[in-house]
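Q: How do we represent a protein-ligand complex in a form that can be generated token by token?
A: Start from the inputs.
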Amino acid sequence: MFDLLIHNAKVLTIDGETVDSDVVCHNGRIEKIADRVDANATEIIDADGHLLMPGVIDPQVHFREPGAPHKEDINSGSRAAVRGGVTSFLEMPNCNPPTIGQEQLNWKIARASHSSFANFGFFIGATKENLKELNDANPVCGIKIFMGSSTGNLLVDDQQILDKIFSTGARLIAVHAEDESRIQKRHAQLTQNTSADIPYERHSEIRDAKTALIATQRAVDLSNKYGRRLHILHLSTAEEVNFLRNNKSAHISCEVVPNHLFLSTDDYASLGAKAQMNPPLRDVNNSQHLWRGLYDNVIDIIATDHAPHTVDEKSKPYPNSPSGTPGVETSLPLMLTAMVAGQCTLKQIQEWMCTGPAKVYGIQKKGLLTEGYDADLALVDIRAFQTVKDSEVFSRAGWSPFAGMRLTGWPIYTIVNGRVVFDHGVIREGVFGQPLSFHGSDIHD
Ligand code: DOR
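Then emit the structure tokens for the protein with DOR bound:
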């Protein structure tokens, strides 16, 4: 008797092809993939010819717990994740108190073990004083450095401290690459002498392309100087892609978020502060360079930077409106819709959202639908378009910057460790994910 038997699926293979198969899951693993399996199972699903793919690994989310559960907590964030076919997430340290030592990490892991529907991993955040914890705390997917300020108070932009962090230890360092001194200078210049409301668009001018490029170059210099594994988070500009095209060594990887692929500064007109994020949206021509970076393997993976804030908070005038947008539940439908439109292939989506994140963070036996791997799966309907509606968003934030867009590729079932957690729009309560372990990255091996 197996745990789960899925009949009649279009299974996404390692090669990015689809093959009509049945899939058996048992003890959390993919036990068997075959033309036809006749066996007993506790649960049997008829996939009705829909696409069965590995669950998405979202390697950058902010779930706000502890500190701001009114925006999101691990439970609500993970509901949104599995609604969007995300079966594992890596969560950022800028909560309150921030995740800067073993104690806060233990708290999050204990909390997630009893409330997260998806599998989970956590970053440890760099401060000016926690060098020892950065390298001792376990398990962590990596060290997060905010080189430019964002939500929360984590910031390290002092060269001596950056040198110390990059030269000590070996674990992956993930950077929020925006240059703090340029942000401060431009913020002062571009928000002074005005009695009128400052338009939200000003945010993209203050944190301009050069702000991102300076910090990305600085992080690459540090990584090369010490041979240190570096991951550059949410690359947002053509300038960074062009720079990395010629300067990306084997120990460097980077990512892009859907907002920078599908939105632009034109969207401030309808979204206002809901378009405000760090790094900010760029002009409408910029996204084609990011797509090109993905096609050319300059950009390795896609993350969402899911960063929920409430509508009330977002209604504040600039600069008191917080930066960040929800996104964990829309990334897969956005990409599958782009695939249906001919912008990318299923094979690329699998690489960018499943196998790629597993490689970057050294997560074993995830990101592929193959026998012996963990049974983290999404059964998606790529034929039924649905309009994104704020009222249907699972995130506690209760809105999406993609509201109004017609997307296809929504999950019908999401399966975590061989157990159904999301079933036709409904969460199956009480089945929780597991802590991820990290085994050193092999991105360019
Ligand atoms: O816009 C952002 N919001 N960017 C970040 O890096 C942090 C995030 C947040 O936590 O709100």
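The mean pLDDT is 97. The chain has two domains: 2-52+370-427, 54-360.
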